Amino acid sequence: MLRMGLVIPSLGGRVSEVSSRPMPSRTMIGYSHVSKSFGHLKAVDDASLDIAEGEFLAVVGGSGSGKTTLLRLANRLIEADGGTITVEGEEVRNVDPVALRRRIGYVFQSGGLFPHLSVADNIGITPKLLGVATAEIDARIDELLALVQLDRTAHRDRLPEALSGGQRQRVGVARALAAKPRIVLMDEPFGALDPLTRDALGDDYRALHRSLGLTTVMITHDMTEAILLADRIAVMRGGRMLAQGTPVELSKSDDAYVLELLRTPRRQVERLNALLPQSGAA
Ligand SMILES: Nc1ncnc2c1ncn2[C@@H]1O[C@H](COP(=O)(O)OP(=O)(O)OP(=O)(O)O)[C@@H](O)[C@H]1O
């Protein structure tokens, strides 16, 4: 696999780097008392959250807790009923939705690729819509394929159906980065992948996030993934923003649901340790 000069940090190195790094303070996305209902259902209920420049924030919570709705409110795929949402200091309701979406990359759970377009055309579609010159788009596609570690010759002209799930997600990330956004929203990007591919993609994306200076908001159902990848975690329940903070801060929460979520990875490890021989003992 191509590495193209990207340093993929070891897990241990990344975790200590995350915990010792001071967070920058400029707010890239700000939610203030935001609400969104569908009929009588409050999908997002009075939620407030600030995401700082350069931050990697994971949003966790049960099915139907409002995570996707929260994400889509930021780029106006859904319009809020109440409260204020800002992106880079501008209220999103004052920004043209199409222009807003070009400033914010979006990675879908299934990759969200156009099935009839090649990998190259999927990646190049936004620059093309923006009127970027063909030669420049071609160079950008190659650069992005290298960034997401897909071999140019092997993958450039393939249709999405001829890719593995992990490769499709890499193309999805490349497409989200094609218009050089500073913010990337990811809706369970690695959820449907096998654990090894998921780990590799998570690590690789985290390295990209850092080297490109991105601000990332990622929905995940996997608390282990949230703890390992994110600087901070926001916990949603029933549309409410239940808690937010670093894993260490959340571990001091007095909310039983938050503590239960945080205990899950450790409980899984304990069960695995009971079932499997300790490493080196096999
Ligand atoms: N367009 C819609 N019309 C009606 N109800 C909706 C719509 N979108 C979301 N909902 C409802 O709003 C609630 C929150 O949905 P949302 O997709 O934000 O949850 P989620 O936390 O992302 O769930 P999951 O983890 O299952 O993807 C759910 O009860 C859902 O059924």
From TrEMBL:
Involved in beta-(1-->2)glucan export. Transmembrane domains (TMD) form a pore in the inner membrane and the ATP-binding domain (NBD) is responsible for energy generation. Residues 29-263 form the ABC transporter domain. It holds the Pfam family ABC_tran. Transmembrane segments: none annotated. This is ABC transporter ATP-binding protein. Belongs to the ABC transporter superfamily. GO terms for molecular function: ATP binding; ATP hydrolysis activity. Keywords: ATP-binding, Nucleotide-binding, Transport. InterPro entries: AAA+_ATPase, ABC_transporter-like_ATP-bd, ABC_transporter-like_CS, P-loop_NTPase. GO terms for biological process: quaternary ammonium group transport. It comes from the Bacteria.
